[in-house]
Write a structure and sequence with these properties.
The complex is a heterodimer. Chain A is an alpha+beta fold. Chain A has 11 helices and 13 strands. In chain B, helix 4 packs antiparallel against helix 5. By secondary structure, chain B is α+β, with helices and mostly antiparallel strands. Chain B is about 35% helix and about 15% strand. Classes of the chains: A alpha+beta, B alpha+beta. Strand 5 of chain A pairs antiparallel with strand 5 of chain B.
Chain lengths: ~350, ~400
């Protein structure tokens, strides 16, 4: 009789301890300081004096098993099989022998993986599925990320920025990965109301849920052509697509009117200033695959504007607050328009209610 | 290779350039997998038409779990039959995203046999994503994962897979063991993770210091961020070394202190710690000279979310200072109180942060049994619409 494996559930992830290299186990909770040795390489020194070298390489997030095997091979070759991934999709090799650093870097570059992303650099662009896998994407994720990082590679491979710069991309307002607190955020958007297939609404959707899903109460139940359905008061629709999320009979994607918007000035860390949201800078750029040149240029311009003008350590949002938004719009060459002014629930809190103006 | 790999002139353009190319990855997988080949074709069509071709996911999964598998179906099944189903399996990652080559090879080998060969390392919540398989492969995949001791992650209106920074495993700034906490909470709440029973998703992210490298304050309903209570530790000799080495301590460090509580007299650095807001800047800059205090713990914040529906939120302070002590029973009790209230009174698809705003933080605190403290607000209210409750005062008068 064949060996029947007993089916298990609820056993959770493997305990991380089995994956830690000995140097980490020995120095766990007892690290003293770290230094950045050169772009993409840092050393952590334990209270014991032990030294752990980390080599960080770009990783595209969408990778085939062959690439996983290559990472495994490199880890075996240089660091006893020990590696990890970062919270922003990159890969890190954990070395104890510093003589292996340069050969590892050479091997990584040979397979097309630049080394960098530590310190005052652009680490990578946090993103999700886009057209590769998502039903609600207003733009592609991987394509824009590739195009932008290709263009900004010098900032990944070096540490010449005044401070940290986090770029993230969300293919729609669901913001999987929460790009709302990035120095530069790329957000996929729609600009036209959904097209309702009234004959299908009752088959595919729960009508009360559809009404409830709308942030601006633009949707109400209605009988249309004899079908129980919904109607949208289009003046109140701001194309967030949440109704589509709960009702497949209301598609919203539209190749000519969908595109990306660029937001700036957010941050997550508490260093120097409190965390803050990204704010709208560029309302619309078209989807122009495969390389989205308008988006690539807009982001490069923003990066360089900030890099040229910010003080050391000053994140983009802090820099803008110091110089004021009017100066930012002027320096960035972005025309201020009605869409830049908030009009949702707490909009009044964002109006400038003082005379602190520069001229 | 029996299947054809579709032509992809637009995507081919993205094989050029310095950044690793996802197109190359899809093509490599397409050599072996008809699924990946059709993905390439459909993606090229999306690049031509500038629109996606996926339907809303259906409910698919493995027996006994209500989530962890994202159903995905192409809306062009006749053109691209090999992605007619193309589901995603979320695999709960090891805390801190540490792997060995051996573990990764096992996953790679298994996945090649049961799916497209494409993965995301990792998804934004933290799971290792196996990208693209058919419905009848799901149980076999789960069988294989069991043998490797990897479990499936969360999805839907459940506790999503918790994630954490690498904390004490490598970082000198870690104020608590984020990986131990992450693993313990994940194991303790397996039922909540695998069986969606909440009004909506609930995410927990743990950073071991206020730098918040996993963006916990922006991306998790429950944000646990390391901090310390006492004085920043100073090694004056090392401070002097930084200054002698050319650092402009006044400009780079002291001027950037939000508490304005630092002073350099040419010889020694003084910090008036009672005004230190634990922002980490000075420690970040002078890591050999400064370190967080010895009395370490975490600030617990609640409520962050993305814009839909009521607007984006950052988590707000719930417990200013918590001392993590395994098995963290006090935290578990608090969170389960929060879940009880939210499950009872929350609307469908209402995140905890929205729920708190709807019912009012003051009321929420009362129900979960936490005393209001000024650390929870940036400032007290400036509007006078106060729901004074005299019934309490009357009871006191009677005594």
């Amino acid at each position: 009789m064949a060996d029947v494996q007993e089916r298990r559930t609820d056993y959770g992830p493997p305990h991380y301890e089995q994956f830690l290299p000995p140097i980490i186990k020995e120095n766990y909770g007892k690290w003293k300081y770290h230094e950045i040795v050169k772009p993409g390489v840092m050393v952590h020194v334990g209270e014991s004096g032990d030294k752990l070298y980390t080599v960080r390489a770009a990783s595209g997030r969408l990778i085939a098993v062959d690439k996983i095997r290559k990472y495994a091979e490199l880890a075996d070759k240089y660091c006893d099989g020990h590696l990890r991934f970062t919270s922003r999709h990159n890969v890190e090799f954990l070395l104890t022998n510093d003589a292996n650093i340069d050969p590892l870097i050479a091997d990584l570059k040979a397979i097309g993986h630049p080394v960098g992303g530590i310190g005052n650099s652009i680490t990578s662009i946090v993103h999700t599925q886009g057209w590769v896998h998502c039903h609600s994407a207003a733009t592609d994720a991987s394509g824009i990320v590739k195009a932008v990082m290709d263009d900004l590679i010098e900032y990944f491979e070096d540490m010449k920025l005044p401070g940290k710069l986090r770029i993230a991309l969300a293919c729609c307002l669901n913001m999987c990965g929460a790009v709302h607190c990035s120095d530069i955020a790329i957000l996929g958007i729609h600009r036209k109301a959904p097209r309702i297939d009234h004959s299908q609404v009752k088959n595919m959707c729960e009508i009360p849920s559809v009404s409830a899903s709308c942030p601006t109460a633009a949707i109400r139940p209605a009988e249309v052509d004899g079908h129980p359905s919904v109607e949208i008061e289009e003046e109140r629709c701001m194309f967030c697509a949440n109704c589509f999320t709960v009702c497949p009979a209301m598609p919203i994607a539209d190749p000519d009117n969908d595109g990306v918007s660029i937001w700036v000035g957010g941050k997550v860390s508490n260093a120097r200033s409190e965390p803050k949201f990204s704010k709208l800078a560029i309302p619309f750029l078209p989807n122009t695959p495969p390389r989205w040149p308008e988006t690539v240029k807009a982001i490069r311009d923003l990066v360089e504007l900030w890099a040229k003008n910010a003080r050391k350590y000053e994140r983009m949002g802090d820099w803008i607050e110091r110089i004021g938004w009017p100066k930012f719009f002027k320096m960035a060459g972005i025309e201020f328009q009605k869409e830049h002014i908030d009009d949702f629930k707490h909009a009044g809190l964002t109006y400038k209610r003082s005379t602190h103006l520069t001229f | 290779m029996a299947h054809e790999i579709p032509k992809s002139p637009k995507l081919d353009e993205l094989e050029k350039g310095a950044w690793p190319s996802f197109v190359t990855e899809i093509k490599v997988a397409a050599e072996k997998s008809p699924m990946a080949a059709d993905l390439l074709g459909q993606l090229e069509q999306s690049y031509d038409e500038r629109i996606g071709h996926w339907k809303h996911g259906g409910i698919v999964g493995v027996m006994g779990y209500g989530g962890g598998v994202i159903g995905r179906y192409s809306d062009l099944p006749d053109t691209w039959p090999n992605v007619s189903h193309f589901h995603t399996v979320r695999v709960n990652q090891p805390a801190g995203w540490y792997y060995t080559s051996e573990a990764l090879r096992k996953i790679a080998d298994m996945w090649e046999n049961h799916g497209s060969g494409l993965t995301n390392l990792h998804g934004s919540t933290g799971d290792l994503v196996l990208l693209g398989t058919k419905t009848d492969e799901l149980e076999p995949i789960f069988d294989e994962l069991q043998k490797m001791d990897f479990d499936i992650g969360g999805s839907g209106s459940d506790l999503r897979t918790p994630s954490c920074c690498l904390g004490q495993s490598r970082c000198e700034w870690a104020c608590y063991d984020s990986m131990a906490l992450c693993h313990e909470l994940t194991m303790h709440w397996q039922d909540e993770l695998h069986r969606p029973a909440f009004p909506y998703k609930f995410k927990i992210k743990m950073s071991a210091c206020p730098n918040d490298c996993v963006a916990s304050i922006a991306r998790a309903d429950l944000s646990i961020i390391g901090t310390w209570k006492d004085d920043i530790q100073i090694d004056q000799a090392e401070v002097k070394k930084y200054v002698d080495g050319g650092m402009d301590i006044q400009e780079d460090v002291i001027a950037n202190c939000p508490g304005k509580c630092m002073d350099w007299d040419g010889n020694e650095l003084h910090i008036d710690n009672s005004y230190c807001v634990r922002c980490m800047h000075c420690i970040n800059v002078m890591t050999k000279a400064l370190a967080p205090g010895k009395d370490r713990g975490a600030t617990i914040l609640l409520g962050s979310k993305a814009p839909i529906i009521e607007g984006a939120l950052l988590s707000s302070v719930l417990i200013p200072f918590w001392k993590p002590e395994p098995p963290y029973d006090d935290l578990k009790e608090l969170v389960e109180e929060i879940w009880d209230v939210w499950c009872e009174e929350g609307k469908a698809r209402e995140r905890v942060g929205e729920f708190m705003q709807r019912v009012g933080l003051g009321n929420f605190l009362e129900v979960i049994g936490v005393e209001p403290v000024p650390e929870m607000v940036s400032a007290p209210r400036d509007n006078p619409y106060v729901f004074y409750d005299l019934s309490e005062d009357e009871d006191e008068d009677d005594e």
